[in-house]
């Protein structure tokens, strides 16, 4: 019954989308929530999804710009819809506010570019370019009058806004942490210590105020309970397992294709480059192996993967990935071995992993064993795993995996069964929706 659903305000840096882990998870968890009981405030440029929500607010220039006098010298671009808006045929249109066009680009003046870059490197941009609680936003929030505020907060700005919105409305709070950003955020900034102190203070305040605290994995929930002395539950990305019901059988021959589909970032780029080097080495030995990378990357980064047999292709949207995944003999799940990467992703459960496991295509993991997602694959025996940062060992493990059809079939069957039992969209959505209803009914 729709009357049992509370009104939820999602307060997030990004909105629903088909191309980022957090956006896909957000979309899949909130699918089916009544349209009149959901609103989304965000500050990225993602387009609205009217099948999920019809009440949006985008933090624009008025809410988020340089303080005086930097606002005059920065010539900051005013981009996209700002303020409340509603979707129309998958696009944004104004509701009493204008669509703002670009001003002259900041990069036009080299002195401004250097100055703004220094602000970013120091971390002071958090304070000279703050996210503000404007009268316009306050009115929009109070008109909606939420029962719950849900946020994947992960910065000073997002934690500050969550705190202010909760005080404004008196609504209950649900936090959902996507990765262990508290362990890594602002470490590279010049003013790292005060920035980290500030964000931790705000985050802990929000955790203590929250009626429900969620992590992205079982490991994160367990560690955060110890770290923050508060109870945690966990929800990760659910998938529609039935999408993969009719995948055509893979032709068994001596031509092999390995596919990676997803973002290339802080915890994966080096491992992908090492895997590309491994494929190149196998081809030099006469093995017919192709490595297809589906990701949006610039030319500067793509040079890391410039090896024989490696194809860099446009990223797959959540809605068109199935046929490309079906081409694969193996799906690569990579994690970098650096200390920084391990610290960042150690407790995470990336969005792509449930999709990989539900596909029925066997997964090949390359990464350190002290990361939860790799350890999960080992303990559950759901795929091939190489935990050694050594090209010779990686080559040996990969070619054995490609040529062992019996083991590929075994892992494909086991991983799909596990996904259906644990990641099915309808089941997980219902559990997630029930948790939010419990928060509302708790009084």
Provide a descriptive summary of the structure in words.
The strands form three sheets. The chain has a nine-stranded mixed sheet, sandwiched between helices. Strands 14-13-12-15-16-17 form a six-stranded parallel sheet, with helices on both faces. About 3% of the residues have low confidence. Helix 6 links the parallel strand 8 and strand 9. It has two domains: 254 residues, Glycogen Phosphorylase B (Rossmann fold, 3-Layer(aba) Sandwich), CATH 3.40.50.2000; 182 residues, Glycogen Phosphorylase B (Rossmann fold), CATH 3.40.50. The protein has 17 helices and 17 strands. With 443 residues, it is an alpha/beta fold.
Q: Please bin the fraction of helical residues.
A: 40-55%
The count of β-strands is 17
Q: Reading side by side through the largest sheet, how are the strands ordered?
A: 6-5-3-2-1-8-9-10-11
The CATH superfamily of the largest domain turns out to be: Glycogen Phosphorylase B
Alpha-beta content class: alpha/beta
CATH architecture of the largest domain: 3-Layer(aba) Sandwich
Q: What is the overall silhouette?
A: globular
Q: In this structure, how is the largest beta sheet organized? A: 9 strands, mixed
Could you tell me the CATH topology label of the largest domain: Rossmann fold
Fraction of residues in β-strands: 15-25%
Number of domains: 2
Low-confidence stretches at least 5 residues in length (pLDDT < 50)? Answer: 92-106
Distance, first to last CA = 19 Å
According to CATH, what is the class of the largest domain? Answer: Alpha Beta
Number of contiguous helices: 17
Average residue pLDDT: 89
Integer-rounded radius of gyration: 23 Å
């Amino acid at each position: 019954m729709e009357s049992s659903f509370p009104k939820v305000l999602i307060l997030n840096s990004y909105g629903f989308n088909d191309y980022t882990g957090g956006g896909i998870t957000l979309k899949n968890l909130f699918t089916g929530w009544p349209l009149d009981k959901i609103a989304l405030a965000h500050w990225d440029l993602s387009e609205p999804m009217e099948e999920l929500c019809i009440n949006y607010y985008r933090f624009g220039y008025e809410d988020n710009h340089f303080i005086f006098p930097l606002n005059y010298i920065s010539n900051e671009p005013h981009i996209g819809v700002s303020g409340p808006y509603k979707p129309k045929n998958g696009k944004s249109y104004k509701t009493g506010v204008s669509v703002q066009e670009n001003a002259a680009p900041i990069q036009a003046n080299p002195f401004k570019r250097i100055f703004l870059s220094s602000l970013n490197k120091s971390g002071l941009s958090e304070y000279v370019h703050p996210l503000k609680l404007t009268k316009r936003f306050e009115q929009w929030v109070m008109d909606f009058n939420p029962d719950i505020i849900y946020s994947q907060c992960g910065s000073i700005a997002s934690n500050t806004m969550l705190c202010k919105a909760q005080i404004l409305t008196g609504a209950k709070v649900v936090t959902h942490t996507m990765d262990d950003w508290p362990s890594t955020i602002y470490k590279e900034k010049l003013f790292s210590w005060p920035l980290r102190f500030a964000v931790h203070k705000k985050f802990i305040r929000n955790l203590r105020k929250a009626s429900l605290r969620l992590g992205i994995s079982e490991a994160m929930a367990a560690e955060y309970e110890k770290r923050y002395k508060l109870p945690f539950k966990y929800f990760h990305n659910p998938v529609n397992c039935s999408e993969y019901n009719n995948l055509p059988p893979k032709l068994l021959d001596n031509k092999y294709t390995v596919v990676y589909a997803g973002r290339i970032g802080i915890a994966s780029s080096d491992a992908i480059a090492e895997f590309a080097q491994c494929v190149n080495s196998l081809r030099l030995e006469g093995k017919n192996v192709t490595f297809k990378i589906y990701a949006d990357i610039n030319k500067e980064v793509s040079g890391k993967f410039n090896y024989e047999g490696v194809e860099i292709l446009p990223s797959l949207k959540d809605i068109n990935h199935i046929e490309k995944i079906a081409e694969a003999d193996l799906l690569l799940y990579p994690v970098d071995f650096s200390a920084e990467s391990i610290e960042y992703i150690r407790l995470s459960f990336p969005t792509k992993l449930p999709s990989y496991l539900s596909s029925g295509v066997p997964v090949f993991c390359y990464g350190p064993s002290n990361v939860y997602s790799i350890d999960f694959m080992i303990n559950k025996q759901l795929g091939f795993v190489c935990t050694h940062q050594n090209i010779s060992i990686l080559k040996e493990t990969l070619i054995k995996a490609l040529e062992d059809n019996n083991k590929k079939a075994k892992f494909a069957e086991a991983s799909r069964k596990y996904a259906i039992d644990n990641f099915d969209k309808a089941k997980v959505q219902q559990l997630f929706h029930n948790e939010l209803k419990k928060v509302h009914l708790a009084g």
